[in-house]
From TrEMBL:
<dbReference type="GO" id="GO:0032543">
    <property type="term" value="P:mitochondrial translation"/>
</dbReference>
<dbReference type="GO" id="GO:0003924">
    <property type="term" value="F:GTPase activity"/>
</dbReference>
<dbReference type="Pfam" id="PF14492">
    <property type="entry name" value="EFG_III"/>
</dbReference>
<protein>
    <recommendedName>
        <fullName>Ribosome-releasing factor 2, mitochondrial</fullName>
    </recommendedName>
</protein>
<dbReference type="GO" id="GO:0032790">
    <property type="term" value="P:ribosome disassembly"/>
</dbReference>
<dbReference type="InterPro" id="IPR041095">
    <property type="entry name" value="EFG_II"/>
</dbReference>
<dbReference type="InterPro" id="IPR031157">
    <property type="entry name" value="G_TR_CS"/>
</dbReference>
<keyword id="KW-0547">Nucleotide-binding</keyword>
<dbReference type="InterPro" id="IPR000795">
    <property type="entry name" value="T_Tr_GTP-bd_dom"/>
</dbReference>
<keyword id="KW-0648">Protein biosynthesis</keyword>
<feature type="binding site">
    <location>
        <begin position="165"/>
        <end position="168"/>
    </location>
    <ligand>
        <name>GTP</name>
    </ligand>
</feature>
<keyword id="KW-0342">GTP-binding</keyword>
<feature type="domain" description="Tr-type G">
    <location>
        <begin position="39"/>
        <end position="327"/>
    </location>
</feature>
<dbReference type="InterPro" id="IPR004161">
    <property type="entry name" value="EFTu-like_2"/>
</dbReference>
<keyword id="KW-0496">Mitochondrion</keyword>
<dbReference type="Pfam" id="PF03144">
    <property type="entry name" value="GTP_EFTU_D2"/>
</dbReference>
<dbReference type="InterPro" id="IPR005225">
    <property type="entry name" value="Small_GTP-bd"/>
</dbReference>
Length: 819
């Protein structure tokens, strides 16, 4: 019997059991601990536009890996990774879910399934911070959509593979989707697509209908077809006819592309294969694809239909074959860029040549109804042991670890240790006030209390750069129903923003109003639901409103403040500018605000206080956040794009035991500096959105008139939408290079091209236009109904945050009138 050389798909044919488990299936020990040697670990994120099939694909991965006994379905609400009640009821992913599973030969895949909706972009941002590579899911009908463009750019440095999903749908086009992918992401970058497989359509016994039933594996030259009735049954056949010809051309094209970059493959091709494409081994091709994928020279492309269980096993093989292990990924970005770093096969990221150093990064906080606060961490170096003493280099605090867990979507599994490359959970009362999103944790890999062996200026000063939080664009007022509910409301809000830092709270001291700010209407709707139903806050909400900001256009200084208790501070508040020499900059979370501390060798090297320097800096940062959140003089909108600079001559008492007094003093100084600034030194800012519209050609004039007139939009471009029904030749993708890149034509598209073109002529069918514009968020709220009216219900649009821009004087009066 022919044996599949790169996968474990023979398990169904060998009949190990109903699930068809592989004869080389990992041991029970491997399944229970989630540990593999570092070269056999893959940390991946599933990213895509909403409804491209991320969760559906993830569910099939878990099924074929043996983690789940049945295939979860988004429509029926029984998926493993979408485990929240709101996710299952709405059929969308709201928060990223981490889960580990084994794949062939004892590989461990740590997967994060991310949301596709633009409102939950922070979930994608923090997932991208800790993963090593990405699987990009594309809809074969829609091609590259707006959110796909965004997440691709966000993950630009990460190696990727692409999975063209929904090949079974009417209008699906493998050819067009690759063309769209290359045109938007690869042209001019030196990166090229590599077809690992392409779609196979089986002609039906009667008529001219073709049904997507499998893929043609280019590397091994086989046809793989899946049974519509049995998800475990795969038939592997030899190729003939058109399929064989197309596969040979794809393989030649693949070799030509790879040999542009890979000298080793050139040598193999000329010497071992004697210049014959058919003799180039699968092993050599896989090795070359892997090497160039890690260098971002090529992007492997596969196809399938996850809902029909087609193509998922080849995708899993591609994950372990081509994507990096933790010791092949890009190094973490540290605050000290001169610290020596390299990868070690045993300890992971070897920092400062210290093999006993364990560094972990906290990227997410959740609240479990039973275990309480839990913190997701990615281990970059060494071993994290339960019970160890940990130093939080972000806050300067020490604490002992409680129980450690391995996440399994909505559940988790206790473990004694977490090793380099793993994603795990911290639990216990000790983390309650000691760890937040973006913190760096340092401990000794072996000793329970081995922090004393670390150098304060070297190991204990290391920090992984924090996660960048985009500014919120919408807000909603919130107040307790009764005065007695105020404390519970504040606790619930604190829990909410601890879990999701892209939410923020602002308070108007004059009106006493509390405002919950978020990334979009849906984001706030979910947050409101969680406050009321999960956190049991008895509150009332106001109307949705745009989150405006203020900024200053002039610097203001506070002359040296000094009191008899031994405190001395000098500070200035200024607009953001270029980096200041001999200073350390600390981001203040949202709103693009920063604390700038002038360097002082005396503070850094002759520290004699009981309170750590990190604790003092954290107190100053807290006072900066409070002071800037009080708002400006125009309408008390929170301040945006400001820097607070602390001069190097600051002093605190030697007997200082708590930094609370520092917080009070610096907060009052910041408020005084802002109050001393005249009102004409403040500007109002409003969120500007990138708007993508897809509208019929006949409605372009009407829509553009509405955008430029009533909505104050700036039109950037108007382009023709590429027709998905046409067959795209390789020369369209790489002009002048069509002998190297070959993409098989779409069978379904070719069958319908003539008929569809005739239909377009007969019915005066309109091709669609893509309009790209920038528009103030205020003018685009509730735009759905208006666009539907202007385009007879045929228009679609997508918006995402672009920037904050200064409001013109005429618009300022209108905005202030609303408040």
């Amino acid at each position: 019997m022919w044996k599949w050389s790169i996968g474990i798909w023979t398990r169904a044919r060998l009949g190990a059991n109903k699930r068809g488990l592989s004869l080389t299936w990992p041991s029970a020990k491997h399944l229970s601990t989630g540990r593999s040697s570092l070269p056999k670990v893959r940390n991946i994120g599933i990213i895509a536009h909403i409804d491209a099939g991320k969760t559906t694909t993830t569910e099939r991965m878990l099924y074929y890996a043996g983690v789940s006994k049945h295939i979860g379905d988004v429509d029926t609400g029984d998926t493993m990774t979408d485990f929240l009640e709101q996710e299952r009821s709405r059929g969308i992913t709201i928060q990223s879910a981490a889960i580990s599973f084994p794949w062939r030969d004892s590989f461990t895949v740590n997967l994060i399934d991310t949301p596709g909706h633009i409102d939950f972009t922070f979930e994608v941002i923090r997932a991208l911070k800790v993963i090593d590579s990405c699987v990009v899911i594309l809809d074969a009908v829609a091609g590259v959509e707006a959110q796909t463009e965004k997440v691709w750019k966000q993950s630009q440095s990460k190696p990727k593979i692409c999975f063209i999903n929904k090949m079974d749908r009417m209008g699906a086009s493998f050819n067009h989707t690759i063309n769209d992918l290359v045109r938007k992401f690869m042209q001019g970058t030196g990166t090229k697509p590599i077809l690992i497989n392409f779609p196979y359509y089986k002609k039906q016994p009667t008529g001219n209908d073709f049904v997507f039933q499998g893929v043609i594996d280019v590397i091994n030259g086989k046809r793989l077809t899946w049974s519509p009735d049995d998800p475990d049954k795969i038939v592997i056949d030899e190729l003939d006819g058109t399929s064989l010809e197309q596969c040979n051309r794809c393989k030649e094209s693949m070799i030509e592309t790879l040999t542009e970059y890979d000298e080793d493959l050139v040598e193999h091709f000329l010497e071992d294969a004697e210049g014959d494409y058919s003799k180039v081994s699968a092993q050599s091709l896989n090795a070359s694809i892997r090497k160039l994928t890690l260098q971002n020279k090529v992007v492997p492309i596969l196809c399938g239909a996850s809902f029909k269980n087609i193509g998922v096993q080849p995708l899993l093989d591609a994950v372990v074959n081509y994507l990096p292990s933790p010791i092949e990924a890009e190094l973490p970005q540290l605050n000290n860029k001169i610290t020596p770093m390299k990868y070690d096969p045993k300890v992971g990221c070897l920092i400062n040549n210290n093999k006993n150093l364990c560094i972990a990064f906290a990227f997410k906080v959740i609240t479990d109804s039973i275990r309480g606060k839990q913190v997701f961490v990615r281990i970059y170096s060494g071993t994290l042991n339960s019970g160890n003493t940990v130093y939080n280099s972000t806050t300067g605090e020490k604490f002992k670890l409680g129980k450690l867990l391995l996440p399994h979507a909505g559940t988790s599994q206790p473990v004694d240790i977490l090793t380099a490359g793993q994603i795990g959970l911290l639990t216990g009362s000790t983390i309650e006030n000691n760890v937040s999103t973006g913190d760096t944790l340092i401990t000794h890999s072996l000793k329970k209390d081995g922090l004393k062996s670390f150098n304060k200026e070297k190991e204990l000063a290391l920090k992984i750069n924090p996660i960048v939080i985009p500014p919120p664009v919408f807000g909603v007022s919130i107040e307790p129903r009764t005065l007695s509910n105020k404390k519970s409301m504040e606790n619930a809000l604190n829990t909410l923003i601890t879990e999701d830092p892209s939410l923020s709270i602002t308070q108007n001291d004059e009106t006493g109003q509390t405002v919950l700010n978020g990334m979009g209407e849906l984001h706030l709707e979910i947050a409101k639901d969680r406050l009321v139903n999960d956190l049991k806050a008895d509150v009332e909400f106001g109307q949705l409103m745009v989150s405006y900001k203020e900024t200053i256009n002039s610097e203001t200084n506070i002359e040296t403040y000094e009191n008899d208790n031994g405190y001395r501070f000098s500070l200035s508040v200024m607009p953001n500018s270029s980096p200041t020499p001999n200073c350390v900059t600390y981001p203040l979370g949202i709103n693009d605000n920063y604390l700038i501390m002038e360097k002082d060798a005396k503070h850094d090297k002759e520290w004699k206080l009981q309170v750590s320097l990190e604790s003092i800096i954290n107190s100053i940062m807290a006072s900066c956040i409070v002071g800037l959140q009080r708002g400006g003089k125009l309408a008390n909108f929170p301040l945006y794009g400001c820097s607070i600079k602390i001069k190097r001559d600051w002093l605190v008492p030697l007997d200082l035991e708590s930094p609370q007094e520092i917080l009070k003093i610096t907060r009052n100084l910041i408020i005084k500096a802002l109050n001393d600034l005249p009102a004409d030194k403040y500007d109002c800012l409003e969120p500007i959105m990138d708007l993508d519209l897809i509208i019929p050609q006949s409605d372009v004039g009407t829509v553009l008139q509405d955008l430029t007139g009533a909505r104050k939009a700036q039109i950037l471009s108007v382009e023709d939408e590429l027709a998905t029904i046409s067959s795209i030749s390789s020369s369209d993708i790489f002009p002048g290079n069509n002998d190297r890149i070959y993409i098989p034509p779409d069978i379904i598209s070719n069958l319908h091209t003539i008929k569809d073109k005739q239909k377009a002529q007969d019915t005066n069918f309109n091709m669609k236009k893509i309009v790209k514009a920038k528009v103030p968020l205020r003018e685009i709220t509730a735009y759905t109904n208006k666009l539907r009216s202007l385009s007879q219900g045929r228009g679609e649009f997508n918006i995402e945050y672009s920037d904050m821009e200064k409001v013109t004087n005429d618009r300022l009066q209108s905005i202030l009138h609303d408040f």
